[in-house]
Amino acid sequence: MTDEFAVVAQNVGKVYGAGATAFTALGDISISIRKGEFFTLLGPSGCGKTTLLRCIAGFETPTSGAILLGGRDITGVPPNQRPVNTVFQSYALFPHLTVEENVGFGLKMQGKSRAEIEAAVARVLALVKLEPFATRLPAQLSGGQQQRVALARALAPEPQVLLLDEPLSALDLKLRKAMQVELKRLQTETGITFIFVTHDQEEALTMSDRIGVISAGALLQVGSPHEIYEKPVNRFVADFIGETNFIEGEAGPAGVEIAPGLVLAVPAGRKGKVTLAVRPEQVRIGEPGEGLEAQVAEAVYMGTDTHYTLALAGGPSLVARVQSNAGPAPRLGDRVGVTVDAQTVQVLDE
């Protein structure tokens, strides 16, 4: 089984300080990352995801537990002796070196021959589509091109694992989206295991084979983007990944009562108080009399979608996301019917 995993973290903990001032950045995290997959560590700022990445890179030493690379315990191995490279938020290119010199720098430090360096540099510049810029200095490049140079430099030594610490955060929205596609293409073409750290849910959903959601130093859920989005294990995951309507109610035989006399016909599978998670795209707006009665309290046009806030009669409000060209649009104040596909509703643990 170990052969299929590139990186395994076994009960990894990291505590800074001691006594009353001690801070637990990671609390007993175990995770197995497969060879050749694009794995994303996702969570809010300060949750511990970068600390875990730094433990894998060797820049931090776990307080407890072990890091395995290809089945070998590398917990005490220095960073420069690990077949791992890291791309940081800051690209840290040498301003006085050309693109090809920046890319070949690490190989030169490894004592590679000139012919080996030239071949490797040519290979990765072609991979990141920067051959025409080989003789330029970093100051002559755009932000996206500089990011590609940093990627090429990290890929040139052909590491077993590439670690990426929020490398797209400095780019503007349009360029960031383009680079998401490029990163996934690079990972697919090279077959190298990518471990990507981000707080951006869209980045994680767009690029990842699997996602690990971290909060307050704890690993909450690991799964494919579809699993994480469609079947979150608790309220934090549901709230952090995408937009969600949370509805408190009392579960009974007919469904979940979300207000006196107002029952949402979903099978809760339990009795007593429950929290339901309903994605806005699963809320359907129909004619009055179809499902629950509601009034359109707000409409926000988002281009491809329009977000409607629907005030349920005698109950809470729900947000519905509807394609803007889906047909006649309800207007503010309109009475509408609201239905939810029961199979899409998640009953959450806190």
Fold and architecture overview:
The chain has 350 residues and is an alpha+beta fold. The chain has 8 helices and 20 strands. The protein has 2 domains: 2-238, P-loop containing nucleotide triphosphate hydrolases (Rossmann fold), CATH 3.40.50.300; 246-348, Nucleic acid-binding proteins (OB fold (Dihydrolipoamide Acetyltransferase, E2P)). It has helices at residues 49-57, 99-109, 114-127, 143-155, 173-190, 201-207, 225-230, 235-240; strands at 5-16, 23-34, 38-42, 64-69, 72-73, 84-87, 161-165, 193-198, 210-215, 218-223, 245-252, 255-259, 262-264, 272-278, 283-286, 292-301, 305-312, 317-323, 335-340, 346-348. The chain has a 6-stranded mixed beta sheet, sandwiched between helices. It is globular and about 75 Å long. The chain starts with a strand and ends with a strand.
